[in-house]
Specification:
mainly alpha; Arc Repressor Mutant, subunit A; 2 strands
C-alpha cells in the first residue's frame, strides 16, 4: 500500500476540516464573553483566550496527529520493503474504527495540559494501527484515557517496574507473589523507604496498571517498611503502547 494512500492521510485531511480546535467549555466561554460590552481587563482576557487557547488546542492536535503519522509511515515503509501483505491490516483498521478513535484522541489531547502526554496519546493510537493483531477499540480508548492522567515521573516508575518484572508478565499470566516481592529490590528505589514511591504506585494501582503485594508475615509492624508492588498485564501493555518505534 503506497504511503500516500494510507488511511491516516485521508483521515487527517478530513479531520482538518472539523472544528475541534477548542473544547466545548472554551467555546461557550468565548461566546458569552464576546457578546458582552467588556471593559479592561476582561476585553484583554477575551483576546488572550482567542489567540492562545485556541492556538494551543490546535498545536496539541498537530502534535498528536504528527506523532501518529511518523510512526505509521516508518512502519509502512518497513512493510513495503519486506513485501508484507496489508489487506488484513486495512480490513481490521477500517475508517469506521480509526476515525472515531482519532477524534477521541484529539479531544483527549485538547484536554491534556502536558504536551508529552499528548505525544503518548498519539503513540498509543499509532501502535494500535501498526499492530498485526486485531485492535480492541475500547482498550485503546481506555489506554489513551490513562495517558491523559499519568505524569512523566509516573511513567518513569512504571517503566522501571516493567524493566525488572516485565519478562514475567503475559496477557493471562500474573507474577508469583514471591518473585514480585524479591524482584522489587532490583528497581532504582532499592530497599529505601520512600513516600513518593507509595504516592506514584498508589496512583498507578488506581488505573489497574500495578497491584500491591502482601507484606511477608515476619515483618515487624513497628518497623518502617516500603510497600512493594507488582506489574499487571495492563501495565505492561500500556508501556508497550507508548513506545516510539521511530529511529529503531
Amino acid at each position: 500500500m503506497p504511503i500516500d494512500d494510507n488511511p491516516i492521510n485521508a483521515l487527517k485531511n478530513q479531520f482538518a476540516m472539523e472544528d475541534l480546535s477548542t473544547s466545548p467549555v472554551t467555546g461557550r466561554v468565548l461566546e458569552v464573553l464576546s457578546s458582552l460590552a467588556l471593559v479592561s481587563p476582561l476585553d484583554k482576557a477575551v483576546d488572550w483566550l482567542k489567540s492562545n487557547l485556541v492556538a494551543d488546542a490546535k498545536e496539541r492536535d498537530r502534535i498528536m496527529l504528527e506523532t501518529i503519522q511518523a510512526e505509521v509511515i516508518k512502519h509502512g515503509e518497513e512493510l513495503e520493503r519486506t513485501k508484507r501483505v496489508l489487506s488484513d491490516h486495512q480490513t481490521r483498521m477500517s475508517a469506521e474504527v480509526l476515525g472515531p478513535l482519532i477524534v477521541d484522541a484529539a479531544r483527549k489531547a485538547e484536554n491534556t495540559r502536558a504536551k508529552e502526554r499528548v505525544r503518548r496519546i498519539g503513540l498509543i493510537l499509532a501502535n494500535a494501527i501498526i499492530e498485526t493483531t486485531p485492535t480492541d477499540a475500547d482498550e485503546i480508548e481506555e489506554m489513551m484515557r490513562v495517558a491523559m492522567e499519568l505524569s512523566d515521573p509516573d511513567i518513569v516508575y512504571l517503566r522501571e517496574l516493567v524493566r525488572i518484572e516485565g519478562h514475567l508478565v503475559g496477557p493471562d499470566k500474573s507474577i508469583p507473589r514471591y518473585d514480585a516481592h524479591s524482584l522489587w529490590l532490583n528497581g532504582f528505589w532499592g530497599d529505601r523507604v520512600m513516600p513518593e514511591v507509595d504516592s506514584v504506585f498508589n496512583k498507578l494501582e488506581s488505573y489497574g496498571l500495578v497491584s500491591r503485594t502482601m507484606p511477608p508475615n515476619n515483618i515487624n509492624i513497628m518497623a518502617a517498611y516500603q510497600n512493594r508492588y507488582f506489574l499487571l498485564p495492563k501495565g505492561a501493555r500500556f508501556v508497550d503502547l507508548i513506545k516510539s518505534r521511530v529511529g529503531e
